[in-house]
Design brief:
There is one protein chain. The chain has 266 residues and is mostly helical. Helices cover 80% and strands 3% of the residues. The protein has a two-stranded antiparallel ribbon with strand order 1-2. Strand 1 and strand 2 form a beta hairpin. Helix 5 packs antiparallel against helix 11, helix 7 crosses helix 9 and helix 9 crosses helix 11.
């Protein structure tokens, strides 16, 4: 029977640690597929048996999963354990919505402050690209693309803060409030003046981070979430008005149908 030497095991441990760090820092994200075993072993400079041992260590931790004939993928374990129970609670207790937005304001203002302080040139280049994409989709009528670009921009800020907990908590929070983000952006998109205010807020956050001004970045992020909170209330009120109007319409049509039937009988 062939067994790995202690040296091979130490190398496998080092490879596992490297991959775990990539997952923690967000270089490898939930759903990402790892390169093929042959390609990955060459990239990491290790043998394929050593790579397999390293991957198995992360599979046993629940950070990776394999699909028969489909490769190895990063799981969402670091986020799902936070999101899953809260998703059900938020659905059942609407009062938690304001708490989520309050938490988001706290988290994003700190993220922006730290990003302004710690962002590297690579981080700034990434933010520049994502901000340019955000500006591009703002000009379109594709609200779904706006939502994706908005989430990606805020996530990049969180990762530029270089705090792994902030990065993963922001990702988890965005998953948790995705419905709120969708409703809010749809509401704002139909109101050009407010839509332009939203654009200006993102520009202010981006500019402050690029200029490495932590206090300015934090203030811009706080103002942005305050704006979101205010407009979420307006969006929910609009939604309730639409539902009320629809209920009245359905009831009116039902009554007309009943009256028609009675008249026909008479």
């Amino acid at each position: 029977m062939i067994t790995n030497s202690p040296t091979d095991t130490r190398i496998a441990d080092a490879v596992a640690d490297t991959l775990e760090k990539r997952i923690l820092e967000g270089s490898l994200k939930p759903g990402d597929r790892l390169p093929s075993e042959r390609e990955f072993s060459v990239e990491l400079g290790v043998s394929r048996p050593t790579l397999r041992e390293a991957l198995q260590k992360l599979i046993s931790k629940g950070l990776l999963t394999t699909r028969h004939g489909g490769g190895t993928f990063v799981t969402d374990r670091l986020e799902a354990h936070f999101v899953d129970p809260w998703q059900e609670m938020v659905t059942g207790h609407p009062m938690l919505h304001s708490d989520l937005l309050e938490f988001r304001q706290m988290l994003e203002s700190q993220s922006a402050s730290l990003a302004a302080e710690r962002a590297t040139n690579v981080d700034i280049e990434r933010l520049d690209d994502l901000y340019a994409k955000l500006e591009s989709v703002y000009e379109s009528d594709d609200v779904a693309a706006c939502i994706d670009a908005d989430v990606a921009f805020h996530q990049a800020i969180a990762e530029a803060a270089h705090n792994v907990l902030i990065g993963h908590l922001t990702s988890s929070l965005m998953r948790l409030i995705h419905g709120h983000v969708s409703i809010n952006l749809e509401h704002l998109h139909a109101r050009p003046q407010k839509w332009n205010q939203l654009r200006s807020q993102h520009h202010a956050i981006w500019q402050a981070i690029r200029e490495h001004q932590p206090d300015k970045a934090a203030r811009a992020a706080r103002s942005h979430i305050e704006f979101v909170v205010q407009n979420m209330g307006d969006a929910n009120l609009d939604a309730e008005r639409r539902q009320s109007a629809l209920r009245r319409q359905v009831e009116s049509e039902r009554n007309l149908d009943i009256k028609s039937q009675i008249h026909h009988i008479d």
